[in-house]
Amino acid sequence: MKKVVLIISIFLLSFILNSAAFCQTQNTLLEDGIKQYQSENYEEAIDILEKVREQEPKSSLAAFFLGMAYKQTMTYDKAATNLEDALKLKPAVKEALVECVNVLFQLNKLDEAKKWIKVAQEQNIDPANIAFLEGMVLSRERKYTEAVASFEKAKSLDQSLAQTSDYQIGLCYMNSRKYKYAQERFKATASFDPKSDLAAYARQYLEAVENTIFYTRPVRITIGLSGAYDDNLTSKPRLQSLAGSTDSPGSNVFSPSLRIEYAPLFDGPWLFNAQYAAMGSFNERYVHTRDSIVNTFSVIPGYNFGRFSISMLGSYTNYSLRTDSDVTPDGNAGYKHYQDYYTFGPIVKIMLTEKQILETFVGYDKKNYYNQVITSAAPFADNLRDAEGFRAYLSWAWFFQNNGFINLRYEVAKESTNGSYWDNSLNRLSASLVLPVLPDDWSQKIGPMYVQLAGSFTAQDYTYPQPYSAADGSARSDRREDRIYTASAGLNWDISKNWTCLLQYTRTQSDCNIPVYENTKNLYTMGVEFKF
After folding, report:
1. The whole model's pTM is what?
2. Structural domains present in the chain
3. Per-residue pLDDT tens over the stretch 127-149
4. Please, which residues have CB within 8 angstroms of residue 228's CB and are 6 or more apart in sequence?
5. Three-state DSSP class for 475?
C-alpha cells in the first residue's frame, strides 16, 4: 500500500521554481542542493541541504527540498520535521502540505495528518490529492464508510486518481465485508489499465474476494462421503482374557454426511449462524450394535464489538442407534432413540492481533439416554447415564501463511449423572496444526493441499468406586480413571472451490485402572466433500 500512496501528489518542480518560495534569497549551496535533488542524487542533496539549513534556518525552500530528499530515501521522521518547517516558515511552501500529510500517514501519525488535512481543506490546496489522503487516513482508522466518500470525492475531482481510488474503495468494502461491492471496484481497477502494477494487485484481490464470496455465502451446503476401516470398532480390551469373543473387532465403515449452514452477513455489528448437520455410520460388521445416525441443530446469534465478539450457543443433538435394548436380545435390533444432548452458553472471541484469536466458552450440558442395555449385576440405578453439568474451554488460534494455522485448546467438564458409576470430571488438552504443502504456483494450478496434524490428552476421573474384574479374574472395586491419548495425521486437497479430497489416519490409546476399558484403536479414512 505504501507504493500506491507514494505515487500520489508528485512534486512539480517547475511550478515550485516559479513560486514565491523560490524568490527567497538563495546561495550557490542551495542551488546545488536543488540540482542534486533534481538529478535524483538524494544522499548528496541531503548532505548539501543540511548545511544550507544550518546557514539559513529560516529558509522554507531549503526545508522543503530537504524534507523531499528525506522522503525519497524513506527517512520519514526527518522528512516530516522538515516538511512541517516548510509550512510554518515564511513564506510557506504550500506544495509541502500534501507531501507532509503523506509522510505523516506513513509514520502512522494520523492525528497530525488530519490536522494538516483540515488546513489544506480550509485553504483549498490540492483538493483531489487531499481527499485521497483523507480517505487513506480514515481507512486506517477503520472508518470505511467515510473513507469511501473521500475516495469518491478524489476520483470526481481528478480522473487520474480513478484507478487508485477504485482500488482503495475495493479494499474498504472488503474490510467491511461488503464483498459484492468490493468485487465491482477491483474489476474496475483491473480494467482501467490492465498492464499496470495496480491492476495486477487488483486481480489478486479480486480472486480473493470471489473466493470469500463463495465461502461466506449466506446458505452453504456440504455433502460428504467417506469410507474407513476401524480395527477396533467394538472397543475390544487389550487383555484377551477380558475380551470375550475371539472374533476380529474391526470393520469397514461407510459415513455419509450433510451440513446446511445459514450465516448471513449484516452491515452492522450483529452476527448470526444457524446449522443443521446429519451424519451416518454404517458398518460392514456389528450392524446391530454399532450403526448410528446423528442429527444436530445449532443456533449462534452474536454481537461484534470490534476487537471482540460475544455469541450465545444453543445446540441440540439426537443420536439414533441400531440396537436391541433387551438384556436378552429378541432380534428387534432396529434404529432406536438413544441419546439427546443439549448445550447452551456464551462464546467470547477476542482478536489479540490481526492473526491471533482467543476464544472461550462456559456452558451447560445435559444428556438423556434411552433404550440402554443394562447388563451389570449392580443395581439398575447405579448404571443410569443421564447427566447434566458444566463444560468450558479456552482456545487460542494463530493464522499464518496461506490458510495455515495452529490451535491450542484446553477443556474442562463435570458430569453429574443419575447413576453413581458414571459421575465424572474431565480435563482435555489438544493441539492441531494445518500446513500448506504446495507453493503458490502449484496451488493455483491443481488446488491447495494441506497437512493436518492433531493430538490430544484426556484425563477422565470417575467420582465413585465401581466393581470390576481384574486381569486375574478376581472381583475388585475402585474409582475408574481413564487416560486417553489421540493422534492423527491427514492430507486435505482442495481440488476446486467445490470439491475437497481427504485422507486421515487416527490412533487412539485408552489406558485405565480398570482393565476392561483399556483398548487401542486405529482408524483409516478416505473421503470427499462437495460444497455448493
Report:
1. 0.71
2. 2-212 (1.25.40.10), 217-531 (2.40.160.40)
3. 999 999 999 999 999 999 999 99
4. 252, 253, 255, 523, 524, 525, 526
5. strand
